[in-house]
Specification:
The complex is a heterodimer of chains A (109) and B (138). In chain A, the strands form two sheets. A five-stranded mixed β-sheet of chain A has the order 2-8-7-4-5, with no helix packed on it. Chain A is mainly beta and 109 residues long. Chain A has strands at residues 7-10, 14-15, 19-27, 49-56, 59-66, 75-82, 86-94, 99-108. The radius of gyration of chain A is 16 Å and the shape is elongated. Chain B has a single domain, classed as SoxY domain (Immunoglobulin-like, Sandwich), CATH 2.60.40. Helix content of chain B is 24%, strand content 42%. Chain B contains one helix and nine strands. Classes of the chains: A mainly beta (109), B alpha+beta (138). β5 of chain A pairs antiparallel with β6 (84-90) of chain B.
């Protein structure tokens, strides 16, 4: 497992029904590309987040495939429609099999 | 014709540079595009790609794509050792077909975005980004 992996997500606390909101996500992760070499000339093995998904009440909002060319601490910004109150579930899939999740509630008035 | 040692060296170096570098990169880009589009024709309307003209640091270059109505958008960096950067698949609750992220660029090159539309057509946009410090860490 990569050290100190912390997901951070910004979602508005409330919205009106059917409103389009902007969501910003960032997860601290080294995203080792597999291209770099260490001091002795050995290739550092690849270790990245390879997939990120966001669901709202079980319905897919966005599903992103990430490659080594995504920067350290991958940042993704996108927009979502909120038809009703509920929760966003954010999931990051690590190369080493770890899965990181974060949940955010949103109230629709 | 006489081959001196110096001549042979120069020739070898020239051939190595000419063949290995560009061909490999472009072949990969074409293969990635073909895998995504299945060889379909690619239009150019209805997709925007926003990237800086000059990026001082190739390690984090902000990139935005927007293709109204698209099912999926793929981003490629034509000059990276592996051109694929990422693919955004939009679900039923996506508010718009917009996404923004930060990518690594090995050097000055074209960044390409290709969107797949629901009717099976494809559109493409590209922009050159000048990179001062490469982002692949030798």
């Amino acid at each position: 497992m990569a050290d100190n992996v912390t997901p951070r997500v910004r979602v508005p606390r409330d919205a009106t029904a059917g409103e389009t909101i902007t969501i910003k996500t960032l997860i601290s992760h080294p995203m080792e590309s597999g291209q770099r070499k260490d001091g002795d000339g050995n290739t550092i093995p690849r270790s990245i987040i390879n997939r990120f998904t966001c669901e709202f009440n079980g319905e897919m909002v966005i599903d992103v495939t990430l490659e080594p060319a995504i920067s350290t601490n991958p940042f993704v910004e996108f927009e979502a429609v909120v038809p009703e109150s509920g929760s966003f579930v954010f999931t990051w899939y690590d190369d080493d099999g770890d899965v990181y999740t974060e949940t955010k509630e949103i109230a629709v008035s | 014709m006489n081959f001196t040692r110096r001549n042979t060296l120069w020739m070898a170096m020239g051939t190595a540079i000419a063949t290995v570098l560009p061909f490999k990169a472009f072949a990969d880009v074409d293969a990635d595009i073909a895998a995504f589009t299945g060889g379909a024709e690619i239009g150019s309307e209805g997709i925007t790609l926003v990237a800086p003209e000059i990026a001082e640091n190739g390690n984090t270059v902000p990139v935005e794509v927007n293709a109204p109505g698209a099912e999926a958008i793929m981003i490629l960096a034509a000059g990276n050792p592996t051109p694929a950067v990422g693919t955004f698949n939009f679900g039923p609750l996506a508010g718009s077909q917009f996404a923004s992220t930060r990518i690594r660029l090995a050097g000055t090159q074209d960044v390409v975005a290709i969107a797949r539309m629901p009717d099976g057509s494809f559109v493409q946009a590209s922009q050159e980004v000048k990179v001062t410090i490469g982002g692949c860490g030798g």
